[in-house]
Amino acid sequence: xxxxxxxxxxxxxxxxxITSPALAGELIYVAPAGEDTAAGTIEQPLASISEGLxxxxxxxxxxxxxxxxxxxxxxxxxxxxxxxxxxxxNYPGERPILSAxxxxxxxxxxxxxxDRRHVELRGFTIRGFRSSIxxxxxxxxxxxxxxxxxxxxxxxxxxxxxxxGDIRGIAAYTTGSRSITDLTIEANELFDVMTGYSEVVxxxxxxxxxEIVDNTAHHNHTNPVFLAAGLQDAQGNGLLTMxxxxxxxxxxxxPGRFAYNTIYNNTDPNRGGIGIYLNGAKDIVVEANTxxxxxxxxxxxxxxxxxxxxxxxxxxxxVYDNHGYGIVVGSGGPDGGPLDSGSVSDVSVTHNTLxxxxxxxxxxxxxxxxxxxxxxxxxxxxxxxxxxxxxxKGRALSVRRKPSRLTMNRxxxxxxEGPAVFEWLGRDAFQGLESFAEFSQQSADGIERAPRFxxxxxxxxxxxETSPAIGLGMTGVTRDRLGRPRPIQSADAGAYQFxxxxxxxxxPESISE
Length: 513
Hints:
The protein has three helices and 44 strands. The chain is mainly beta. The strands form four sheets. It has a 25-stranded mixed sheet that branches. The protein has a 15-stranded parallel sheet that branches. The longest helix has 17 residues.
């Protein structure tokens, strides 16, 4: 009964949205049994999505696609206006399929949004994309403004020439020193995307004001999974070239936000799989994401010596059961390689919960939290529980490069089988927080105790009323990952604020202000 009511409500709301007078555009219908010479009404639908988009040439026009399988590349040819986008979407209650199985393998995209403004893609299954060139199943390319990609399922994506990449699930690249602004990638599901050293979701170049929120990415063979990046040489020129000869802008992506995404079971035995990776990005908020069973959870680095990663806030995330690493910040990387030599600055890691990262024996190294070369790093009010197996066993913290302006306050650390291990510059290993704090002059106000989660065995890392994490915070972050208020003078450490007698999950609200 509840499920039926929910579907009925969603159908009604979708219908109301489609017919809203505010859009005031034409409704154009497409169905498998239609004809491209037809009127495009619900009674006389068109046969192809391309014809529907060709006719949707006025702001507010919408192309509604009935259930069925469509074998055609999709290109948006027209712009909408502020408040009146051109929308390509599913008919309410139905999910049409965009299949690439009959398409050529030299396409830059299965769905291409190039140099467009005020357009939306909603409610499709997008599957089977294959390409031999730098490409993406859904590609926002060149320039753009107010673009929405929402509620789609993207899967079965492969590069035909090599497994090492140059193909993505959803991508946004700027070219020609232009910009993409106000991009929203929301509530999509991405799986079975095999990219090698490419990404499932990526923004690269001068992409500003992006929101990547409430997406689910799982069972992909990729490294990394979500990425915000720039890639440039000493003169600031981009280092990526598209098949048509256009050069991807090398500027750092941002500002932007990754929030409320669930990223899990993304691993590759040879390449790893970082859940959220910032590599040449600026002013990025990474908040309230859930990342588990990847190679690593969150990483803020700068692979190329000409890159700058700066102004990063990592807050209210839950990062657990990742094979190698929980969170990594700073150049130098897990192995200190020569590529990881760019600039990382002004990063805060606050109110995150990290549990059992670095547990897998498949990897030679593992640790809960790692710090490389960084200028300006604040690590506050986190709860970090180490692994009891694998290379990360007992390893709470590894400082591999001496950071500048490091501040570690009011964190909770715990190794269930004894004192946690804190490593400094690869030479010194300290048993327990007290000896590390005395040596490093950091984290003297932290504690090393069991956090007393509600049900750790089922990954419920909310706090119980006896948790010593209660009141440990005081960071100025005003809300937890569930949107609950954090009192300024009595905030709890970790991603969750405890509230006695309250176990519901309120609607998440942004806590990045």
